Amino acid sequence: MSGQDWGKPEIYEIRFRGHLDARRARMFEGLEMVQGPAGETVLTGPVIDQAALHGILTRIRDLGVVLLSVRLLAADETNSILLLHRS
Question: 85: helix, coil or strand?
Answer without folding.
Answer: helix
